[in-house]
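Subject: design request, 170 residues
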């Protein structure tokens, strides 16, 4: 029996070769895709590591924030207790404060001996009033240099211009 060389076995071999070639092509495209994805996987892993570090930092910051809040609540309670001890009326008092330019010599003496500071002012009828600064736990004698004066020689503070006019007394 010399049959047709293109029998069922040949057909089967051809089909097997076709399937193998198709599988190889699929594997080649899969390998190429896998090669493209590997760097992305590494990027994702790096992002996950950074996200974990950021989460730890956030948790630490949240913990510090809570500790600070508790400290503030404690400080507020202490402040309120002190306010209650002083009494409401004592804390509502205002103390007049005079800010005037002085010479460098007077500034040095006042810094060295704040208890020796005295102030005088002339009343409308020419009577001179002379006294030392009032004792007050919240106000102390301060000597500071002014950064700037306006055109009339008045000290310029960040948000206030003094009403003192040294020229009018000459």
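Subject: RE: design request

Done. Sequence follows.
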């Amino acid at each position: 029996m010399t049959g047709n060389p293109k029998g069922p076995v040949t057909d089967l071999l051809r089909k097997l070769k076709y399937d193998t070639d198709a599988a190889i092509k699929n594997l080649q495209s899969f390998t190429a895709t896998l090669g493209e994805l590997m760097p992305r996987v590494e990027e994702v892993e790096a992002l996950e590591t950074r996200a974990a570090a950021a989460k730890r930092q956030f948790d630490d910051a949240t913990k510090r924030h809570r500790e600070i809040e508790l400290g503030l609540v404690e400080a507020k309670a202490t402040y309120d207790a002190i306010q209650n001890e002083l009494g409401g009326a004592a804390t509502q008092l205002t103390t007049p404060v005079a800010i005037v330019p002085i010479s460098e010599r007077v500034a040095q003496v006042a810094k060295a001996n704040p208890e020796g500071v005295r102030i005088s002012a002339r009343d409308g009828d020419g009577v001179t009033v002379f006294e030392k600064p009032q004792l007050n736990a919240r106000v102390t004698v301060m000597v500071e240099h002014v950064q700037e004066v306006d055109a009339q020689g008045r000290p310029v503070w960040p948000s206030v211009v003094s009403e003192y006019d040294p020229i009018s007394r000459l």
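The first strand starts at residue 119 and ends at 122.
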